[in-house]
Write a structure and sequence with these properties.
Layout: H1 3-13, H2 20-87, E1 134-139, E2 153-160, E3 163-168, E4 171-176, E5 186-190, E6 201-209, E7 214-218, E8 227-231, E9 239-240, E10 245-246, E11 254-262, E12 265-270, E13 273-278, E14 289-293, E15 305-313, H3 318-325, E16 327-330, H4 347-359, E17 365-370, H5 377-397, E18 405-411, H6 422-428, E19 430-435
Parallel strand pairs: 17-18
Antiparallel strand pairs: 1-15, 2-5, 3-4, 4-15, 5-14, 6-11, 6-15, 7-8, 7-14, 8-9, 9-10, 11-12, 12-13, 16-19, 17-19
Length: 436
Amino acid sequence: MTLRHTLALVLGLAAATPAAAQLDGLFNKLQKKAGQTVERKLEQKTEKGVGAAVDEATTLPKAKDEKAEKAAKEKVAKDEAAAAAKDKPKDGSKAKAKAKPAGDEEASGDDVAGEAPAAGEVYGNRFDFVPGDKVLVYDDFSDTDVGEYPAKWTIKDAGGNQIEVVQIGERRFLKARYAKEHQQSASTWLRYAIKGDMPKNFTIEFDLDLGGPFGVMFSKHRAWGGQEINIRAKEDDPVHTTNASGKLSVKSGIHHVSIAVSGTQAKVYVDGDRVVSDPDAIERPITRIGVVFHQPYQKEGDHQQFTALRIAEGGKPAKALLAGEGRIVTHGILFDTGSDVIKPESGPTLRSILALLQEDPALKFAVEGHTDDQGGPKVNGPLSEKRAAAVKAWLVKQGVAGDRLTSKGLGQSKPIDSNETLEGRANNRRVEFVKT
């Protein structure tokens, strides 16, 4: 019922009373007040609509301005990043700085754990691994057919899961056959005949898939009294020997492992990091060397594989070679197959040459690059020339005067070992420094 109807009802009931005239006056007042209320509400509604329109008209340009400002800021940030990348030094260091004396930490690139240097640069001074000079065993499994057991290895006193050679890209790996459930461990020993004991100083190198637990065995299985260098990247102590353990900055992927043995001491490196040093890691005599693929991490998939095993006897220091023979034969300056880009693990050997040049300002070298016979002379001649030039360029970059060095490539023309075996070819791949 509306206000008008209610008042009409009241007036009708009171029409016969003396107060009728008064009620009629009250009705007129109420009617006027109701009209004013309706007008006020209409005005408020109109004002609200106008306000919304004004807000829209003023806010839209502001939003557009904010969007434009944001885009401008993003462009400035992008330009600054591009400029920083352009100014970044090519030697792997993180910022431009004044040149420091050759041999200092920063002169050889960053030495940050787990961080690879730029192409052509080397690991810092903390990486002090120098590979042995005389190769005793080399196996990249290139002489074994895919699916076969490699000839240099035996399962005698070993065994377990099936092991076979597989092809991954352009490389071959020795691999434990994968099983989704209940995959066994697998072990194998090198057939290499050790006469009494291994040399006092020798090195072991290989490329390992860190996705699966792996070990290098000496003389016997660890469970039967032997020693083992164990690499289990997914565990709390990922690298451990008999008495020591160390951490890894990487947990997966293919990485280079280097082991330096001197007497009973073993130092273990992964890429550019020295992760373990144990003075009593290995008992002598060492009668054989093998590897073990431990029971894998099932959730991690198929990662039980390694390749490019190199075992070499430690050589004389560079200074002693120079004094005795007038030339230094090195196997520690490394390149990928078909490449003239120096690999980062070449740092210790390069720095040893650099130190000689710094000690004797009159010393001059002819840098000679040598290859094996794979690929033929038309490939190996130019390749060895480029590699020798890359070594010279690195030394000059460290502050050695260019007129103290010459470079030439001799390809496969001057072998020091047979090219009929993997070990012989590994010995023939070298860089020599001849005193001039």
